[in-house]
Amino acid sequence: MGRYRGERPDQQITLSTRKNTDRFNISKVKESRKPLLSEEDLFNGIRNGNKAVLAQAITLVESSKKSHWERANTLVEKCLAAKTRSIRIGITGVPGVGKSTFIETLGKNLTDRGKKVVVLAVDPTSSRNKGSIMGDKTRMPELSKDARAFVRPSPSGDSLGGVARKTRETIILCEAAGYDIIMVETVGVGQSETAVHGMVDFFLLLKLAGAGDELQGIKRGIIEMADAIVINKADGDNLKRAKLAEVDFKRALQLYPPKENGWIPTVSSCSATENRGIHELWEIIEDYVAKAQKSGHFSIKRKIQNKEWLLQTIEERLKFDFYNHEAIKSQLEVFLSKVAENKISPFRAAEALLELQRRKSV
């Protein structure tokens, strides 16, 4: 019997999720009521490692209000000028692979070594009501309480594949706050892997053994992006299957050419719950970073990512300006109806709407 009389197990889960969501929403309301700091005060607070100020700054850069854009841009520029030596790690895997437990275990291992760790866990957002689970702090309770860690759940909004629209800016803020390791967790669906791969230094793919997708079901593109493949939950009755899957992946990777920087992706297994294989994985990441920095590929990759950041920002701004144009807002539904009834082709409708925007903007 649940905490509330007559409550079914599924109701307990719903109530628990609702409580977690409500708790996060309440904290967001409280945060929004705090007096807004100036960009200079925000920057100084970030540089001093003030988590509350960092949270407020992230809220500012995530804001979709046009009135906040200039302040957010000024703050990001200040933080960009702060020289940092961080490592950005992208982590992906299908739901149920154990990403949260893995990230928490890896994070705790790193904070125990004196590292400062950030987890930007991107929540799935409903396409219907734009709601978000926002449960990352409850999924990583120990890491969330760690003084050397900062866990930030962010709604994925409308960005490609469920990646938070302002994740790049958030990374910059966290680095300016002195965090050494930035981990970005993807929702594991759509094209979010591609988006996250374009903003990190090292890309990690988590897999499960015995899930029926060791080789056949995995997307070739993700294999090509991965710098390391880790078979998680290699413990108990699953240990033997995990070792077999590890061998299969190593054989499969032999068919792929080395990456541009000469790195050959590694395959290993671990148990996040038993804290086994995590230390060895971190050594792999450190080896990758050392070789990439020595060859110059590390800085080259970041410069390429900055260029992509610019192009993506232009696309987002153009999209925002289009859909918020008064003439478009008044005519879009009209053209959508015409297209639905085959009275006009989508191409002609798009041309008409774009021309309407151009004419009204002059």
From TrEMBL:
<dbReference type="GO" id="GO:0005737">
    <property type="term" value="C:cytoplasm"/>
</dbReference>
<dbReference type="GO" id="GO:0005525">
    <property type="term" value="F:GTP binding"/>
</dbReference>
<feature type="domain" description="AAA+ ATPase">
    <location>
        <begin position="85"/>
        <end position="253"/>
    </location>
</feature>
<dbReference type="InterPro" id="IPR003593">
    <property type="entry name" value="AAA+_ATPase"/>
</dbReference>
<comment type="similarity">
    <text>Belongs to the SIMIBI class G3E GTPase family. ArgK/MeaB subfamily.</text>
</comment>
<protein>
    <submittedName>
        <fullName>Methylmalonyl Co-A mutase-associated GTPase MeaB</fullName>
        <ecNumber>3.6.5.-</ecNumber>
    </submittedName>
</protein>
<dbReference type="InterPro" id="IPR005129">
    <property type="entry name" value="GTPase_ArgK"/>
</dbReference>
<dbReference type="Pfam" id="PF03308">
    <property type="entry name" value="MeaB"/>
</dbReference>
<keyword id="KW-0378">Hydrolase</keyword>
<dbReference type="GO" id="GO:0003924">
    <property type="term" value="F:GTPase activity"/>
</dbReference>
<dbReference type="InterPro" id="IPR027417">
    <property type="entry name" value="P-loop_NTPase"/>
</dbReference>
